[in-house]
Amino acid sequence: MTVQFVTNEKVAETSSKGNQEKWKDGGRWYKLDQFGYEGLAETVISRLLERSSIETATPFRFVRYRMARMHVHGRDRNGCSSENFLLPGESIITLSHLFKREGRPLKDFLLRLPSDRKRIARLAEETAALTGLELFPQYLTLLFEVDALFLNDDRHLNNIAVLEKDGQFDYCPIFDNGAGLLSNVQMAPMDIDPAALIRSAKARPFNTTFNRQVIHARSLYGPQLHIPQFSEETLRRELEEPLTYYAQRDRGLIADRVCRTILMRQGKPKTRGAIRC
């Protein structure tokens, strides 16, 4: 089924890589593929996270996505949708906005710190102090682990958030993983070997390597993500339905890029407390 939208109903959310168009309809949020196969990345990552212990062993949650076809701007477009997880009166407050309204722009005080480890600790602990969310450091570590496993290089400070209602805060479900799995084919062209793209990727928000960011966070707060090791067979099985939304000529290339990304990343970083496989 193709969901019908008209342009003047869109909600444009600005990311660090441009405007991603989103719509709310019938209790669900819909968003378009913008630079490649973001809808597939969101869908596959959320399905794989269902195999983790996030919702059974931690107080944290993640958003579940599914593929969607939308008729917008006069043509059919691919994307994904997710349930609206906000309760009545609840809002998403990004860390960038949270600190700005406190008169403490994040970039200013983070850039003054001399190391990534100190920046992670300051971000985690200052957020916990502002919100009363004592486990926010563990939540941030989990977020970085998920990003490292799936190579999400767009976790800027507007993609890390908390929930707020009547001055009370809660942990935001992990969301917006669509930049993972080399989905942005403008920044990661399909004709470049995935291994080279994976090796050169940088983690946000500190523009460091994924391994270094995870190692620092775990050394401070311990490992949080426990997820089984994925075989190529399992990954290709999860890709079967999402791939049907894309052109036949691209399906093999997308599948190969997704599988190689996860298979390369899931064994790293090889340190004490590495992602358990």
What labels describe this entry?
Phosphatidylinositol 3-kinase Catalytic Subunit, Chain A, Domain 5, alpha+beta, 2 domains, disordered C terminus, 277 residues, 3-stranded antiparallel β-sheet
> Which band does the percent of strand residues land in?
15-25%
CATH topology of the largest domain: Phosphatidylinositol 3-kinase Catalytic Subunit, Chain A, Domain 5
**What spatial order of strands do you see in the largest sheet?**
1-5-6-4-3-2
Helix vs. strand class = alpha+beta
Q: Which CATH architecture of the largest domain would you pick? A: Orthogonal Bundle
Tell me the overall shape.
globular
Separation, N- and C-terminal Cα atoms:
37 Å
Rg estimate, integer Å: 18 Å
**Total of DSSP H or I helical runs spanning 4+ residues:** 10
CATH C-level class of the largest domain is Mainly Alpha
| DSSP summary, beta strand count | 9
If you had to describe this structure to a student in words, what would you say it looks like?
This protein is an alpha+beta fold and 277 residues long. The chain has two domains: 2-83; 91-265, Phosphatidylinositol 3-kinase Catalytic Subunit, Chain A, Domain 5 (Orthogonal Bundle). 39% of the residues lie in helices and 18% in strands. The chain has ten helices and nine strands. The strands form two sheets. The protein has a six-stranded mixed β-sheet with strand order 1-5-6-4-3-2. The longest helix has 18 residues, at 248-265. It is globular, with a radius of gyration of 18 Å. The termini are far apart.
